[in-house]
Amino acid sequence: MGIPHDIYGEVPVAAVKLSPESILTEQQIQELLKCRIAKYMIPSRIIFLVELPLTPNNKVNKSAIRKLFMQPEH
Predict the structure, then answer these.
(1) Distance separating alpha carbons of residues 31 and 45, to the nearest angstrom
(2) At a CB cut-off of 8 Å and minimum separation 6, what does 51 contact?
(3) Cβ pair 16, 46 in contact under 8 A
(4) pLDDT in tens, 15-70
(5) Is it true that domain 2-70 has CATH number 3.30.300.30?
(6) pTM for the predicted model, two decimal places
(7) Domain residue ranges of the chain, discontinuous segments joined by +
């Protein structure tokens, strides 16, 4: 999904739920995507969640995920 960006207007980000045995990092995911999608589509930030937030209809709650990205980074 996209979040607001001062220069580009919007940049792609991703929320990922990894399987328990997976050990992928943010950088590894970005590297894997380089040969699969256009550079401008590669998420600038990736957060890992235990569970993706869902709407009452059991769809991914994009607004809840967007709020996670809008919080200041530590």
Answers:
(1) 13
(2) 17
(3) yes
(4) 999 998 999 999 999 999 999 999 999 999 999 999 999 999 999 999 999 999 98
(5) yes
(6) 0.81
(7) 2-70
